[in-house]
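Hello,

I think I submitted the fe (ii) ion job twice by accident. Can you confirm which output corresponds to this input? Input:
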Amino acid sequence: MPPSSPSAGAAVLWCNLGSPAAPTAAAVRPYLAQFLGDPRVVEIPRAAWLPILHGIILRVRPAKSAAKYATVWTPQGSPLAVHTEAQSRLLGDGLAQAGHGQVQVMHAMRYGEPSVETRLQQLADAGIHRVLVLQAYPQYSGTTTASMVDAVNAWCGRARRVPELRFVADYHDDPAYIDALARSVERHWQAHGRGAMLVMSFHGIPARNIKLGDPYEQQCLRTAELLAARLGLPADAWRATFQSRFGAAEWLQPYTEPTLRELAKQGLKSVDVMCPGFPADCLETLEEIAMEAREAFLESGGEAFHYIPCLNEDADWMAALTQLAERHLQGWPTRAG
Ligand SMILES: C=CC1=C(C)c2cc3[nH]c(cc4nc(cc5[nH]c(cc1n2)c(C)c5CCC(=O)O)C(CCC(=O)O)=C4C)c(C)c3C=C
Ligand SMILES: [Fe+2]
Ligand SMILES: [Fe+2]
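Support: Only one job matched these inputs. Its output is below.
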């Protein structure tokens, strides 16, 4: 298809946060510089924040983060990158099977590679001028979802031919997403038995963002309520918590690890922990939850900690994602012939 053809189908860009290129301080430093230099992520005035970021944080954190990444890294790369790429391939297969053979699916990362900019340029070079931006963030947050839109807009700001664009803001209450999560919990219970409580841990954000209008907390709580209802859990059998606090400011509460410690001290012996806001396992789930939070629970008197993996390449989840993409592709030329 020549690059200027007006009917070269459409593309889905499956976007996730991204990982460093390697679990080394040298590779983590530029990744963190890009991530923590994003004004959507840290909303402290630049003049105050950049000296702290470059003078303190980027001197200390890369080595510590790299050591954590090393504990979860796979021969194929970071778990987040491996799962995101596989999901993109499976979404392409799902759309092709549903008859949308003209849709090209690619994955892109907000920080690191393959960047949103790289992918938009590749699509433009291939003559594709309709792009559906679908993000691996079921719950909307300005820190993540809007930041991805910024990256798309940054490329568009330099492009001569701007593609027709669609963004999916969130799918926190999508019945097929909730159902895929529920089935993954049920499968886990069948294989490993059922803990006395299900803790659903979401990535945190600063509490201030909520006061300024970010719907993230409300959407996380809605996901958790819908999932608990779908599983038939009474109110005292589940909790929604927030993890990965960064810095000294107040973040969304209750915090995951202190909650797990507290529950264990109150006599809870067994717990199932899952991370419904992360479609792909990553540092924050495999290291912070499945390793660190486990240790905290067991240290505090808990006896059985079961981590329920993220949806990753789960078939129900991939079907849910395919349906979501199909709904948002409507009206675009997606079928051959
Ligand atoms: C200042 C801070 C941060 C905000 C706000 C934030 C929001 C946020 N993040 C995710 C998803 C992920 N975050 C991941 C890693 C990670 N997050 C922060 C900081 C903030 N996140 C840092 C500094 C890091 C890097 C690791 C570290 O040094 O601690 C990841 C994992 C990436 C990987 O490579 O595995 C994900 C995924 C969401 C969904 C979110 C807001 C809703
Ligand atoms: Fe994060
Ligand atoms: Fe973390």
